Structures are given as structure tokens and as C-alpha cells.
């Protein structure tokens, strides 16, 4: 019997396989934007795809997301800016997490002026 963690890891890898499959249907000149709840924490350490607005400490899924972005030449748009509002900052909030990301190919990153994910199903 597989443990819950192993089962979740399989789901994560299947997700990345599905993204790769979808990319296979596109032309090289197409702009690809991938967005959603990755349940990943990419942290605040500056790496090629993580900018100054990351939050906290990277987790395993965050490492996997960073690795995928580096291999596929993508960047995370909603943490590359220094707008000051990550969409997660609330007065008195000490436990902030950012797990929703908007990814775009690096060659198109300058086309993105502002990018923001909002927490929760409903937003202010």
C-alpha cells in the first residue's frame, strides 16, 4: 500500500507530465502561461526565477516547481515584482504563504507589467 505522501508525489509528477503534454500541442512562437495552485512554497531566496517578493522557506514542491521552471525556461511572474503587496499581507498576519503562481516563458517576461494572485476563493 502506498503512503499518502507517495500518492501525493505521484499526483504532482502526473501534473507536470500533463503540462509537458499540453506544451507539445503548441507552436514554438506561442506564449505559454501556466497558472494555478501549485501548493508549493518557493521561498524568498533569490534564484533565477524567484524574485524579491517570495515568502518564507522553500518546501519540496517549491523545489520541484523551481526545477521545472529552470528546465523549461519559465519564470514566476507574481513574485518577480517589488510592488509591496503580495496579495497575502494582512495586518497582524504572521503565517503568510504563497502557493498560487503565474508562470510565463522567460523570453516573454517583459510583456508582463503586473501579475498578482489573490488568496482564497473570494477576493476583496
Automatic annotation (TrEMBL):
InterPro entries: Endo/exonu/phosph_ase_sf
Name of protein: Craniofacial development protein 2-like
Protein source organism: Plakobranchus ocellatus
